[in-house]
Every structure is written in structure tokens, then in C-alpha cells.
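Example S7 (C-alpha cells).
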């Protein structure tokens, strides 16, 4: 059987290759891909290959249906039974490698930008057959935000009365806003320069928005918090200017979680005296996720559905496999939110 894989063969050049689908062994699974989100990490790799993965079959926010199973594959990571026809999502491979970020021809069909994908032995797999496709596509970015919230809870106790700023309302920031909403936080301020994303932030839980293009964002946050500043800030942009500004939003004894820099975008600045020591600011960072965050992400997304928060609004643009260059361009334009591939075959 032949399959198709979207391969990054050079910077800003994805080609769809028709290749034989690998035979699976007793510890592997073959999945028919149903959909996959385009992540900012995919775009960084697409633009300049900073990880030296080319040629690489990208895509790590995917989901699909099991069509073949090795005889030794029995359960998902939580112990739930797996069978042909089940819908799954997948975290890292057993060695820690991320699907869709494994370079070289031997890893074609190890990325979700394909119509079939091989799941390697002992991978972190979750059976999510009860969830619709669009929510399943959002599980991986939700796991990123769940990890950020979990790390933040180590340094700050969120209360109904807490004032929380989320700076940067791309997919991760929007997920964080929805999580704050489900935790019962009543004062959530979204900060961004994209008016349409700020409108979406309101729909999924933000109680106020600040457009950085309208003037002094720090003054605006202070005004929204009765001159005090926010109790907690999630810094979700990849902007060094944004990272430098985030400290200024805080009140004394506040906390900040830096979750925006998955790649090196340069140096940011802060004043150790005024930003950290004197106000006794608590600080944490968040990097990707652990398997437990995927479990939390599925429960969080189920809860948003129960509470009437339509997280599928994050999916703004859908592309077929042969239009991945266009999908990357759309992502880079900043005019969509979550750009996704859906398998139309």
C-alpha cells in the first residue's frame, strides 16, 4: 500500500511524496491520519531548519484512527484498552523523540502531516475515541497550556478573586485563558496586538482585553486592576519586548510564568531590583509537557464543552495535504489562529 507524506525538503519547501507505507512490527501501530494542527515549532523548522532535521516529515499535533496493530499492543498510557478503529493522540516516542520532529528518510511516516503514520513501540498513546475530531486536534496544544498552569500552581494559588494577565493570545494563550475560566478565576485580562484574537479571547473567558497598539499596555492593565497590577502573568509570546514588559503588569508578591519561548528568539531585559527582589516576584518557566498533562488536557477540553466554551473556534483555517506550503504561509501571516491539516482521502 502506498501512502503520502508531506516532507520538508528545503527551507520553505514542502513536497508531498508518494511512498510505500512501512510494514509494522509486533510492537507498532499504523494510524490513518485524520487531522493535525500546524504548530509554531513547525513554522520555525519550515523557515530556517534551526534543528537540522531536513528532510523531515513534520506534524506533532495530530490524531487519527488505528488501522493496524502489532500483537503486543494492548493498552494506551492510562491502561485503557486499544483496538482497531479507536481514535488516538500520541505524545513522545519511548526515547523522548517528538513525532513530526524526527529528521531523516527513515522517519517518513513518523510525522502527522501524512495520510498514514507509524506509531513506534512503547509510545505515549491515548485513546480519545469519545472526542470529536476538532477537539482531538487541540489536545497537544492544550497539554502545553496544562503544563504551564501546573507549573504556575507550584508558585501561586489561583483564587476566584485573582487577577490574571495572559500576554499573547495565540493558541497557547487562548488555551490558558480557557483554563483560568474553568478554574473559576473571574478577572482575566488578555493582552495582544491582534484585534480578532482579542475578540476570540473574550468568547472563551477573558473578562477584559488590552490591545498593545492602542497605547500603554502597562497603564491599561493597572487601570483594569484598580492601580494595583495583576496577581499573575502568563507570558505566552515569543517576543523579547513582550517578555521584558510582562514584569510591569504585576503587583507586589505576584507571579509570572514564561511559556512563550520554545526557541531562542534573543535576550529580554528586566530590572532585578524593581521587578524581582523588591516586589518579591515568584517566577517559573514551562517547557512542553509530560504525559500527565495530556490526560489533564483531554479532561479540560471535555469540561470546556460541558461549560459551553467552544474551543473549536480556535481552528480558523483548514488545508489538504498538498497545500502545506500555503498552510505554513497562513500561519506566518498571523491572520489565523490554529491552522490545521485534515485528511480528505
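Recovered sequence:
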Amino acid at each position: 500500500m502506498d501512502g503520502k507524506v508531506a516532507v520538508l525538503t528545503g527551507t520553505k519547501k514542502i513536497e508531498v511524496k508518494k511512498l510505500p507505507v512501512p510494514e509494522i512490527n509486533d510492537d507498532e501501530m499504523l494510524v490513518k491520519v485524520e487531522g493535525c494542527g500546524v504548530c509554531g515549532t513547525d513554522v520555525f523548522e519550515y523557515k530556517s531548519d534551526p534543528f537540522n532535521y531536513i528532510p523531515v516529515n513534520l506534524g506533532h499535533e495530530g490524531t487519527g484512527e488505528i488501522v493496524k496493530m502489532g500483537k503486543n499492543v494492548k493498552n494506551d498510557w492510562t491502561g485503557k484498552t486499544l483496538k482497531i478503529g479507536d481514535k488516538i493522540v500520541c505524545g513522545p516516542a519511548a526515547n523522548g523523540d517528538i513525532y513530526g520532529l524526527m529528521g531523516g528518510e527513515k522517519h517518513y511516516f513518523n510525522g502527522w502531516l501524512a495520510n498514514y503514520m507509524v506509531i513506534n513501540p512503547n509510545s505515549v498513546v491515548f485513546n480519545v475515541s469519545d472526542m470529536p475530531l476538532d477537539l482531538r486536534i487541540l489536545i497537544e496544544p492544550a497539554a502545553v497550556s496544562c503544563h504551564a498552569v501546573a507549573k504556575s500552581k507550584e508558585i501561586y494559588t489561583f483564587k476566584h478573586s485573582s487577577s490574571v494577565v495572559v500576554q499573547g493570545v495565540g493558541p497557547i494563550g487562548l488555551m490558558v485563558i480557557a483554563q483560568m475560566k474553568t478554574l473559576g478565576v473571574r478577572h482575566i485580562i488578555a493582552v495582544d496586538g491582534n484585534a480578532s484574537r482579542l475578540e476570540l479571547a473574550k468568547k472563551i473567558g477573558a473578562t477584559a482585553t488590552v490591545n498593545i497598539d492602542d497605547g500603554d499596555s502597562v497603564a491599561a492593565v493597572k487601570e483594569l486592576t484598580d492601580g494595583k497590577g495583576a496577581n499573575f502573568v502568563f507570558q505566552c509570546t515569543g517576543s523579547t519586548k513582550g517578555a521584558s514588559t510582562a514584569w510591569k503588569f504585576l503587583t507586589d508578591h505576584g507571579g509570572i510564568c514564561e511559556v512563550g519561548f520554545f526557541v531562542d528568539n534573543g535576550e529580554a531585559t528586566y530590572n532585578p531590583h524593581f521587578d524581582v527582589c523588591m516586589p518579591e516576584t515568584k517566577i517559573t518557566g514551562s517547557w512542553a509537557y509530560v504525559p500527565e498533562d495530556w490526560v489533564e488536557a483531554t479532561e479540560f477540553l471535555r469540561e470546556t464543552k460541558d461549560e459551553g466554551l467552544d474551543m473549536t473556534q480556535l481552528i480558523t483555517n483548514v488545508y489538504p495535504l498538498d497545500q502545506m506550503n500555503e498552510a505554513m504561509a497562513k500561519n506566518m501571516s498571523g491572520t489565523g489562529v490554529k491552522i490545521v491539516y485534515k485528511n480528505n482521502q
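Notes on this example. The mean pLDDT is 96.
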